[in-house]
Design goal:
Number of domains of chain A: 1
CATH architecture of chain A: 3-Layer(aba) Sandwich
Radius of gyration of chain A: 18 Å
Largest interface: A-B, 27 and 27 residues
Structural class of chain A: alpha/beta
Mean pLDDT of chain A: 93
Oligomer: homodimer
Number of strands of chain A: 11
Strand content of chain A: 5-15%
Largest sheet of chain A: 9 strands, mixed
CATH superfamily of chain A: Nicotinate-nucleotide-dimethylbenzimidazole phosphoribosyltransferase (CobT), large domain
Order of helices and strands of chain A: EHEHEEHEEHEEHHHHEHEHHEHHH
Low-confidence stretches of chain A: none
Shape of chain A: globular
Distance between the termini of chain A: 46 Å
Helix content of chain A: 40-55%
Chain lengths: 370, 370
C-alpha cells in the first residue's frame, strides 16, 4: 500500500517530516482532485497593494481569468492572460501543466467575485468582498462555509486526496488581517506577488481594518468565521468549509502560501481533528523568498508539514519565467500544490523535468495571446 | 474485468439487450457519480399541467426542494417535502436511499430555476425558463450547453460511469414539444406524474408553443439547441452538454423517462458517436404505465438500451408509496437511474430489497416533516 517514496528531487519537505511521510504515503498513487476557489475584495484595488494584474483595476479580473485558463487554456473575461506589471505570467501556467500531465480532475469554486468567470463553477452563494478597511469585508460567510463543507464532503467520497487552492487578489493583505485577528502571527511574514513586498502599506491597511472591525490582535482567536467576515476575503469561507469537509475523509494539500495558511489556521481552530490529514504544498520560489517566511508561518499554526515543489526557472529561455527566480509571483492558483499532487498521484511519473517541459510548451503558445 | 452479472431480480433490460449487457459490464463494480440538473419553466404553473407540487405555484419550488432533500435530507426552500396533491412523496425519496446505500458522490447542476436551492451547485449561467407558448422558452442555451460539456468532461475523468438526471416541473410537456420539433415522436407517448395524464392539455400547449416558435413537426431535427431555446426548458441545455461531455469518456445512464429521452435525442443528434456509451435507466413503475410508452419512445430515438429498476411498493405499509403502483409519480430526480447505478457500482450488494428497506426507514422520518 505504501511504496517507497523517492521524490526528493521533485518535492522537499519542510516542517514535521514524519507526519509528512505518513500523509504522502497515503497519497502516493491515489486519485487526486484539484480545486481552486476564487474570490476578491476591493482591497486589491488600493494602489500598490497587489501586483496580480497589470493595473489595480485589472486585479479584479485576475481570479476569473486564472480559472478560465485552467478550464479552457485561454482567457475569456479579458484579453491576454493575467500578468504582473512587466509581463510576468500568472502561476496558473504551472497549474495548467500539472493538471494536463496528471489528467487530474478539477473543480472551480466561486467564493464571490466582481467578474464572473466563463467556466462552470460551484456556486456557494458568495459575493465579492469589500475593502477590509470597512471592517465588514465579507457577506454571507456562514452560508458559503456550510456549502464548502458539503462540497468537501462530496469530493472526499470519490477521491483519495484533494488539493485546495485559491486565486484571490489582494489576498496576502486580507490573510495577514485574519491571521492577526486570530492572534496567529504578530510579525508581518506574509509574501507578495512582487519582490518589492509593500509591507508597510499592508501593515497600515491591516491596522486600519482591525480598528474598523473593533478587533485587536488575537481577539477573534476562537471566531475564525467572524474574523473572515470582518477583515478577510470571499475566497476564505468556502475554501475553509471545503478543506474541513474533505479533510474529515481524505488527506488535503492546501496549495499556496500566506493565504492558505490563513485558511489552515481557521480550519484547525474549527476542527482540530483534521490535523493529521492536512499538509501545505507550495513552491521552492516561495520557500526561498527573502521577504517572507512561509516556514515560520506554517509552524506558527501547528505541527503541519510543508512540502515544496522544486521547479526551477533559472535556465528557462523565457524572461517572464526567469523572473520567478528573482522573487516575482512565486505562488498562487495552487501551482505548488497541483504540481506536488501531480507527482504523487502518478507515483513520480510526472516530475519537475516533465512539468518544466510542458510549461515551456504552453508558455510558447500563451506568448502568442499576450 | 467483466464478472458475470446476475441482477435480473433487480434490473430488467428493455431494448437493445446485447448492447445493454456490454455497457452494464463496463459499469459493474465501477465508481459511479450521480448528477441531477434542475430547471423549470413557467409552463408548470399552467393549471392542470403538472402535478409535481401541491399547487401550480408550488411546482416552482419542487426542483430546488428535491435537491435540498438529496443534499441535506430535508428541504430548506419550502416546508415539508415536494408532494403531489394527495400527499404522495417526491421520487427523490428513492434517490436519497440509492445515494446513501451506495455512498455514491453526487453533484447538483443548476440549469436555471425560479427558486434557488440551498445547496452548493454547479452554476452554468442558466436562467429559469418562460412559458413555452411564447416560443422563446429558454435563454442562454449555448453557454449552458458548453459549460455542461466541461462538467461532463471533468466528471468523466475521475469516475467510471455517470448518472445524468433531472428535476424540472412541467418537464414532460416541454420534452414533448422538443421531441415534436425534432420530429422524433408525433404521437403523444409522454408520461405524467399523475395517473390522469392531462394529454389533451399538453397537446394543446405544445401546439401553441410550436406555432409561436414558427416550427412544425421535425423542422428542427438537426437543430436541437434551437428546439430547446424555442420550446424546451432550462434543465435541457446543461444536461445535454453534461451527457455528451461525459459519454465521450465513460458510460452514462440517463436516469429518467420522457424528459431524459428528449435530452438523449438531442445528444445523439449533436454527437452520434456516443451511442455506445448511453443507456436510459428508469423504473418498473414507468415501464408499466398504461398512459405512456417509454419503451417506444426510447426506440424512436435509436437502438439504445433501456433498463428498469424493479422496485415494488405493492406491499409497502405506506399509502403514499403504494400510490406509485397506481400510476402516481413513477419517475423523476433520477430515482430509477440512481437505483440502477447503486446496484451496479456495488456489484449487486445494494439491491431492491435493501433499497426498499431504506426507503421505508427514510420515509418514516420524512412523514414527521410533512
Amino acid at each position: 500500500m505504501n511504496p517507497p517514496i523517492d521524490i526528493s528531487k521533485d518535492v522537499i519537505i519542510h516542517n514535521a517530516p514524519r507526519r509528512a511521510e505518513e500523509i504522502l504515503s497515503r497519497m502516493w498513487g491515489g486519485k487526486a482532485v484539484f480545486t481552486c476557489t476564487i474570490g476578491n475584495t476591493l482591497t486589491s484595488t488600493i494602489p500598490g497593494v497587489s501586483d496580480a494584474g497589470d493595473t489595480p483595476e485589472l486585479t479584479l479580473y485576475t481570479p476569473s481569468a486564472d480559472v478560465e485558463l485552467l478550464v479552457h487554456g485561454r482567457t475569456i473575461c479579458m484579453d491576454g492572460i493575467p500578468i504582473n506589471p512587466g509581463g510576468i505570467p500568472t502561476p496558473a501556467t504551472v497549474t495548467m501543466a500539472a493538471l494536463a500531465l496528471s489528467e487530474m480532475p478539477f473543480h472551480i469554486i466561486n467564493g464571490g467575485v466582481n467578474v464572473l468567470p466563463h467556466v462552470p463553477y460551484f456556486d456557494v452563494g458568495g459575493k465579492a468582498g469589500r475593502d477590509i478597511r470597512t471592517g465588514e469585508a465579507v457577506s454571507n460567510v456562514q452560508e458559503c462555509y456550510e456549502k464548502g463543507l458539503v462540497i468537501g464532503d462530496i469530493l472526499g467520497r470519490s477521491n483519495d486526496f484533494l488539493v485546495a487552492s485559491e486565486s484571490c487578489t489582494g489576498g496576502t493583505t486580507t490573510a495577514l488581517a485574519v491571521l492577526r485577528a486570530m492572534g496567529i502571527i504578530e510579525e508581518n511574514l506574509v509574501s507578495s506577488s512582487s519582490p518589492n513586498n509593500p509591507k508597510e502599506l499592508k501593515d497600515k491597511i491591516v491596522s486600519e481594518a482591525l480598528k474598523a472591525a473593533g478587533a485587536e490582535y488575537g481577539d477573534l482567536r476562537h471566531e475564525p468565521l467572524e474574523a473572515i467576515r470582518r477583515v478577510g476575503d470571499s475566497m476564505m469561507p468556502a475554501n475553509l468549509g471545503l478543506v474541513i469537509g474533505a479533510a474529515r475523509r481524505i488527506p488535503v494539500i492546501l496549495g499556496g502560501g500566506t493565504q492558505m495558511v490563513a485558511v489552515l489556521a481557521a480550519a484547525l481552530e474549527i476542527d482540530p481533528s483534521i490535523d493529521e490529514n492536512v499538509i501545505v504544498g507550495t513552491t521552492r520560489w516561495l520557500i526561498n523568498d527573502r521577504h517572507s517566511d512561509i516556514v515560520r508561518m506554517v509552524k506558527s499554526v501547528g505541527d503541519i508539514p510543508l512540502a515544496a515543489i522544486q521547479l526551477d526557472y533559472t535556465d528557462s529561455p523565457y524572461e517572464g519565467l526567469r523572473a520567478y527566480e528573482e522573487g516575482y509571483v512565486k505562488e498562487g492558483v495552487g501551482c505548488g500544490g497541483s504540481a506536488i499532487a501531480a507527482v504523487l498521484s502518478t507515483c513520480g511519473e510526472v516530475n519537475c523535468e516533465r512539468l518544466l517541459q510542458r510549461i515551456h510548451e504552453d508558455y510558447k503558445e500563451i506568448l502568442k495571446m499576450i
